[in-house]
Records
---
Amino acid sequence: MIEHSCWHPVAQAMDLGTAPLGVTLLGQRLVLWRGGDGGHLQAWDDRCPHRGASLSLGCVRAGPDGAQLECAYHGWRFGAGGQVVSVPALPGFVPPAAHRATAYAVAESYGLLWVCLQPDADAAAPAAAIPAIPAIPAFAAELDGRLRKVNCGPYLVATSAPRIVENFLDMAHFGFVHEHWLGSREHTAIADYTVVATPTGLLATGCKAWQPRSSVHAEGGADVEYTYEVNAPYTAILTKIPDASSVALQDFRESIALFICPLTPETSQVWFRLAMNDFDSPEAKLQAFQHTIFTQDQPVLESQRPRCLPIGDNAPVRELHSAADRSATAYRRYLRERGITFGTC
């Protein structure tokens, strides 16, 4: 699947301590671990190649050449890259190179741990045999030192990752799902906006909505200009700039990244990363506003049938579209063109 060549967030970085951490990605169980000294980050199949026990039940031990992961079943130890380095039942045995756990590329970014399910070039096949891994999806606001970064989540959501992305791109639900917050029943018309394809997805500009409370700092209703970007199958970013007279902070703007881990075709784990020029409010206050908005979305998302996004020629249903859905139809087209099948039907 093409999804295996993409980066996906699987856990918050702060959740990985000295013990192994079991996670799920694209229906596959993984174990994350690193040395107690914060050493090299590892992501492997959560399965001991000896007898199939979960390596996440094990523990991290110190070894002569660095930290090792010890299986809880028979004590087999694995070094960085997945190589078996010790079999306690056979003290004199030197494990051959083929005795190893399956390792994958893993990285830390945006306060999250990301995994790509292509084999790790440093630990498995020769580099020439492994396709190049693209960069972790960009979040331009991350580089802006004037903006404070705050993570929200995770949220476990009983629907597919594409359904969540499509909802994130949608403004027409504001006056109904987020009435008195992001929208009003008296202001539901969606003005024309532009969507263009990009090398990594799509960009929607000129998106405007009237909102009674556009942010935690809003002091009244305001017209808000949105820009939406999709730069990976399960990642989207919005940037919004409200009318300056409607907020207490000078030059207020915010950018919000939606990062999704597709657990199964119909279940997802969601994080949001906020970038705001507010360094004074408690972190909990900023998170509470985002929490309110998403928990208004969540029951609607989980009610949609089918849970997988129907984009294929043989989809079980045909959904209707309007001109207000331009970003959604562009997103569906992008998924079809990329051959994304996990979470679609």
---
Amino acid sequence: MKLCAIGLRGIPDVMGGIESHCQQLYPRLVAQGAEVTILARSPYVENKPYQYQGVKVIPVWAMRHKFLETFLHTFVAIFYARLFVHPDVIHLHAIGPALFTPLARLLGMKVVVTHHGADYDRQKWNGLGKGVLKTGEAMAIMFANKILVVGKSLTDRLQQQHPKQAHKIEFVPNGAIADFDSNVTIDDLSATGLGLEAQSYIVAVGRFVPEKGFHDLVKAYLLTDIPQKLVIVGSTDHQDDYSRELLKQASERVIFAGRREGNQLKALYKFAKLFVLPSYHEGLPIVALEAISADTPVLLSDIMPNLDIELDAQNYFKVGDHADLAKKLTQDIPKAPKADILVKYDWDKIAQHSLLLINQTVKAS
């Protein structure tokens, strides 16, 4: 089975939840016998084709632009796939790229769409942008051969709203990595150069965009006098007023660590006293699953995709409520049931299920 993936920036170690999803999924599909080609966005990867764990990655032109990048790249990549890759199935990621599902079908290709979350809820989109993304979701549901949805509640909602298409809407979550923090030591934490010791800080990880809620986390943290520092790991694809204002909050207590990869990132998870995800929008948060895999207590906003992980009530706070978050930051938050989470969100099983569904799509008339 020959699959061509479109909609992600690229792999490996490219910032973003979709990118993390694909970095775990596609090598596993290759190991099961699939041939996978990713058409990556040229600014984020090497300028020539390469392979990552058996996955072919081809850079295709993309213009770095906060609003147009995804749509222009997807349009070009679909034609590139038809002319040069000749896949059995196109795998589109997210509802922005899904806007071009009819185009891929018109060009004679079968399409699987992975719905990573209701992106029209992101604060960066104006009314027009939200309308375009909702149209993308509608195009996926109407024209895709199969829709894989990473959130359980979102899957249920889409099936209820579109009963005639419910048979092709499937729940396929993101996964947790069982050996995420293996071979990670305190030396890896020292290698970050941040001067941190185990249990001496609270950590958050993500892109600097409004829907991640880092501004709420900083405000709530500064309402407390807890001794732990606040360490925010990540950056932004496109500098804007929000990211610049956020970075102005840096101080001796509030540390912006930039992007981190490999053992440094894993160490920042593993040795934190607490991981916090204050987001307003998610699909199914991979960063939360990574923190749980690192056996670190997690505190999540009470949005539905986070509630779908089904942790104890103590692991949640009211989204956007600075007082509630500040109160929780001063408490001892319990660890999540790591063993149960690893079973529930096993990447190997998720990959097997994904390949089964994609193969069914290819074989269907």
---
Amino acid sequence: MQNTLNIIENALRQSLANEKTQYSGRIYHYTSPEGIKGILTQNEIWFSNTKFLNDSTENNYIYSLFPKYPDIYKEVLLEKYFFDLIRKVADSYLQKDWCYLDDNVWWADNIYVASFSKSKDNLGLWNYYTKNPNSVGYNLGFDYIPFNISSNELKYIHGEVIYDKKKQVKLLKEIILQYNKIFKDYKNDIETNQLTKNNFIKSFIDIIELYNIFFKNPAFRDEQEYRCAIYNVINYAGIMPETRIIDGVFIPYLKIRYDLNALYSIGISPSNNKELLQKGIEFFLKTKSIYRPEIWCSKIPKRY
């Protein structure tokens, strides 16, 4: 069965890649003044653990799409045992970051992401980084994906976030039908051999978690997010998570170096003090011997 699982996993990863990697334009990383100073000084961008992102539903969004009744999939009759199994997984993850099945605790993988946007001048993202009338936000524009991560142990994936619920359901349906077929083919072994069953569950959850990285509630569509994600971090000896504290919360993150040659612009949020802000960032860049980025100010009117 393991060979069959490997084949299906590879096919489903490719299906996801085909869906989300059509975009090849510029991307923008919105951040605070402290954030841009750290990024340009250390030549690093921080990838945050997905369990601590600002959208509280993000960790379990995909599980809210799971079918509640097996007759939703009329093309292929779902095995009742399989349907009950995936419902237990979904219901558990909707309540917490893990599920408990057959005396086993199944944790979602530790996934770290860096968020970008395809939108150069986005009011919603500016508002997130300018909490009060006197605060300022910045974004860094990149000509191409600025990371070159290659490792047999460290897993890296990037692409557009999928907001279209019909696409999300279609992709999830493909996963469920593929695993339902495997269950049918190996039903007796899965139901009687705990190790086989565990391998089956782990494979299913790993694929679901991979897709979950790029599924987001349609309410966030205006962000036009492009996401870079790293997973399988625990097994990679060359990189270890660090911790920062925000509002009293300990938040794990990874420091990942980026290609400075990809940086083509730095944007400044809506402000009535544009000239001084632009002079300040230009002076800072000179102190770091960074001369390439174009500096620009948002064209969105400043409101009080």
